[in-house]
Specification:
It is a single chain. It is built from 2 helices and 3 strands, in the order E-H-E-E-H. By secondary structure, the protein is α+β, with helices and mostly antiparallel strands. The chain has a domain of 73 residues. The mean pLDDT is 76. It comes from Paracoccus fontiphilus.
Length: 147
């Protein structure tokens, strides 16, 4: 199975002047032919032309989408040398430089700041009575009667 490597270059944006190229279309075709032949001399095979979007800065804070005309080429990749490791594909978005940290444990609160069982008891009730299962709950509070 053949493995290919690819090269993508921007398409020419202007035509080339020449004696036989009189119209803008002829000049652009000449510039494109020159680029295709230059890549072919280096062993690249033309695959296709693409128009792809790119988000670019516009002014200080703005962004705009710009479209680029690109030429795609390929050639058979050289086989890796004997014993050499094949290059692993790289992720599109690199991983973070540092590993994720474990969450930090909750600090121990000072004893005075920690809630105490007696904090939730009504007045005149001792902590020992609250821990006793036979204690009767206090009567509900009511507002004083108005005469």
């Amino acid at each position: 199975m053949s493995h290919f490597e690819y090269s993508v270059v921007p398409a020419p944006s202007r035509g080339e002047k020449a004696k036989d190229a009189r119209t803008p279309g002829d000049r652009y075709a000449l510039a494109l032919t020159s680029e295709l032949n230059r890549m072919a001399r280096d062993g690249w095979e033309y695959v296709r032309a693409d128009v792809l979007p790119s988000e670019e800065r516009s002014g200080l804070t703005g962004r705009s989408t710009v479209y680029h005309n690109l030429l795609v080429f390929r050639r058979v990749a050289a086989a890796p040398a004997a014993g050499a490791m094949a290059r692993q594909p790289q992720p599109e978005y690199p991983a973070a430089a540092s590993p994720a940290r474990a969450p930090e444990p909750m600090p121990d609160l000072p004893r005075a700041a920690a809630p105490q069982p007696s904090d939730h008891l009504p007045p005149n009730t001792s902590a020992e009575a609250a821990s006793d299962g036979n204690a009767t709950p206090p009567a509900p509070r009511s507002a004083p009667l108005q005469d």
